[in-house]
Design brief:
Keywords: Hydrolase, Metalloprotease, Protease, Signal, Zinc. One of its GO terms (molecular function) is metal ion binding. The protein is an alpha+beta fold. It has two domains: 215 residues, Metalloenzyme, LuxS/M16 peptidase-like (Cytochrome Bc1 Complex, Chain A, domain 1); 189 residues, Metalloenzyme, LuxS/M16 peptidase-like (Cytochrome Bc1 Complex, Chain A, domain 1, 2-Layer Sandwich). The protein is 45% helix and 19% strand. The protein contains 17 helices and eleven strands. Helix 4 packs parallel to helix 9, helix 10 packs across helix 16 and helix 11 runs antiparallel to helix 12. The chain is globular. The N terminus is likely disordered.
């Protein structure tokens, strides 16, 4: 398998479009509503056990933000049968690694073990779901951890508040308007009962997908899955509210002052459609064409050729309900944010009025084929993609067919989608600037 992947990757480096191997899987439901996906790959003696829960920061009360990310930490505290502080010791003592991450839309936990420890992994993940210990000492401990993370990664990090500033201006109604890490004040004021209620509502088998991928025997895996997850009680149906944002029809202008920076930053952000749409995939093409790496149109033009910027880049957020396409730039001395914006707009207008070249189009196809192969080149990547496509897209087989959608995108569609979404009256222009005293120094 590894040799096959290396051969595919090598072909892509030389401009060929390769066809990745089909990912095989089996899926079924337990009686309690938990969805199970099995992917067998016996090429290496490792197995990954992962659970993705359909809960992210968008599911939070606007007055109690940060809960989803908080639980990513809290549920490693221990269970009725795993003593506090022992989770990581058990994993490492048995040759494994584990981690978790949270987004606006979901929370994901996983363990990678030698294949002879599959039963241990399944038991541990079932313990997290069936017997979590949510007490005051664990909550207080993780409040300190989250506070330190927020200080170091966001509050005191240069340019650390960009995403927060963009979200609060692009979204007025949808819960995407706050960040995943949430508010320290909300977490500090929350009571133990609030955390228990959040767990009881969202950490239920019918709000999750279990993925087992790697080297295992399917019959035995199914027995253990039933043994450890089958007895877990089904939770109440989760009623989700639909939040609709009005279209942006005139430029939103905002300013954010960051005391941790010395160089101002231009930020131009567009609200984009759900990642499940074809338009979102076309916008992925446009983002890559404009701003993905040093060979992109914007970098070559503004940084390399005209030397008007220290840096030009973009961040794309593909999410379940809406997405964001965020362009940013650091102007060189003697140039301004307005100078960078004019250069960016010139390139956007070109995409809106002209077809990109056949050469650039083929380059995009190769890039996305390469990304697809890389994402599915490890058992860990396959497991997460299987969970994601089931939970957020509603179609597990997109792990095999999503790349076909990208292949079917035409140059004409690229032009049309740029015309539809990337207009000056449909965006946020954020001046991200230093404190006034920084400019005086």
């Amino acid at each position: 398998m590894k040799k096959t992947i290396m051969a595919i990757s090598t072909a892509l480096l030389f401009g060929g479009v390769a066809t990745a191997q089909k990912i095989t899987f089996e899926e079924y439901d337990l009686n309690n509503g938990m969805h199970v996906i099995l992917h067998q790959d016996n090429s290496a003696p490792v197995v990954i056990t992962s659970v993705m829960y359909h809960v992210g920061s968008k599911d939070e009360n606007p007055n109690k933000t940060g809960f989803a990310h908080f639980f990513e930490h809290l549920l490693f505290e221990g269970t009725q049968n795993i003593k506090r502080g022992e989770w990581f010791n058990i994993v490492t003592a048995n040759g494994g690694v584990n981690n978790a991450n949270t987004s606006d839309d979901r929370t994901y936990y996983y363990e990678v073990f030698p294949s002879n420890n599959l039963e241990l992994a399944l038991w541990m993940e079932s313990e997290r779901l069936m017997h979590p210990v949510i007490n005051q000492i664990g909550v207080d401990t993780q409040k300190g951890v989250i506070k330190e993370e927020k200080n170091s990664r966001y509050d005191n990090q240069p340019y650390g508040k960009i995403i927060e500033a963009v979200k609060e201006n692009l979204f007025t109604n949808h819960p995407y308007r706050w960040t995943t890490i949430g508010s320290t004040e909300h977490l500090n004021s929350a009571k133990l009962e609030d955390f228990k209620a959040f767990n009881e509502k969202f950490y239920v088998p019918n709000n999750a997908v279990l993925v087992v991928a790697g080297d295992f025997e399917q019959g035995q895996a199914k027995e253990w899955i039933q043994k450890y997850f089958g007895p877990i009680k089904k939770g109440d149906e989760i009623k989700r509210e639909t939040f609709i944002e009005k279209p942006i029809t005139e430029t939103i202008k905002a300013t954010h002052i960051d005391p941790n920076i010395q160089i101002p930053m231009l930020v131009a952000a567009y609200r984009t459609p759900s990642m499940k749409t074809r338009d979102a995939r076309i916008l992925d093409f446009i983002s890559s064409y404009l701003s993905d790496g040093k060979s992109s149109k914007l970098y070559k033009k503004i940084v390399d050729d005209k030397k008007k910027a220290l840096q030009i880049g973009a961040v794309g957020f593909n999410q379940e309900d809406y997405g964001m396409y965020i362009l940013y730039g650091l102007p060189m001395t003697n140039f301004t944010n307005e100078d960078l914006l004019r250069e960016i707009d010139e390139e956007i207008v070109k995409i809106q009025t002209e077809l990109i070249s056949e050469k650039d189009y083929q380059k995009l196809l190769n890039q996305f084929e390469n990304q697809y192969v890389n994402q599915n080149s490890s058992v860990e990547g396959i497991a997460e993609n299987l969970a994601k496509y089931y939970l957020l897209y509603g179609d597990v087989n997109l792990i095999n067919t999503d790349i076909d959608i990208y292949h079917s995108i035409t140059r004409e569609e690229i032009r049309a989608v740029a015309q539809k979404y990337l207009n000056p009256n449909q965006r946020l222009i954020l001046d991200y600037i230093p404190s006034p005293e920084k400019n005086e120094n």
